[in-house]
Amino acid sequence: MLRLIIASLKSSYVAQQRILTNKMLWFSFVSLVLLYGVMLIGIYITASHQGLSCPDWPLCPNGFNFPPPKYFFEHVHRLLAAITTGVILTSAFYSVKKAKNVRTTAVAAGIIISVQIFLGILVINKRLEALLVATHLSTGVLLFAMTLMTFLSSYRLANGNSKI
User: Fold this and answer.
1) DSSP of 34-98, one letter per residue?
2) Number of domains in the chain
3) What range defines the domain where residue 95 resides?
4) Do the domain assignments include residue 24?
5) How many angstroms separate the Cα of 96 from the Cα of each of 30, 32, 35, 81, 158?
């Protein structure tokens, strides 16, 4: 009887851990995909010399309205960056509460994205100073690495290669 109770509790615990691991896997995957999109748009903006097409921060002159062609990519970049920030910070908070094995990289990504936002503000306010732009792009690569590591760790956990 005791073995049956222990087996039942164990299978319930394993099922609950698998649900938590799958949630972290989805948070990290969505973070990674969104961040990749933000980076692609950001690189396009830099390469096409549109970095100051929207000279104010945080909103373009059109505010929350649909952006005219002049501000389109910059507007989408900022909007997508805000959504990505929310997802990455949610991943970090979730990892602290529920997914301890991926906490280090998820929290690092949360901290790095905060620095990245600050650098983005400086890039606009300092009118594309070259060192700031390079730092902003480099920090984006570091953020992508942390997000990728969080995803890979979550994937490994979801496939049962390690305990949560």
Assistant:
1) HHHHHHHHHHHHHHTT-TTSS-SSSS-TTTTSPPPTTTHHHHHHHHHHHHHHHHHHHHHHHHHHT
2) 1
3) 35-158
4) no
5) 18, 18, 21, 22, 17
- Encode pLDDT of 62-74 as tens digits: 777 888 888 899 9
Q: Is the peptide bond before 58 cis (omega within 30 degrees of 0)?
A: yes
The C-alpha atoms of residue 62 and residue 156 are separated, in whole angstroms, by 44
133 occurs within a structural domain: yes
List, in order, residues 6 or more apart from 49 with CB less than 8 Å away: none
Q: Which residue has the tokens 């094995």?
A: 101
Residue 102 lies in a domain: yes
pLDDT at 157 over 90: no
pTM for this model (two decimals): 0.85
State in Å, rounded, how far the first CA of the chain is from the last one: 28
Within a domain: 136: yes
- How many Cβ atoms from other residues are within 10 Å of residue 21's Cβ? 24
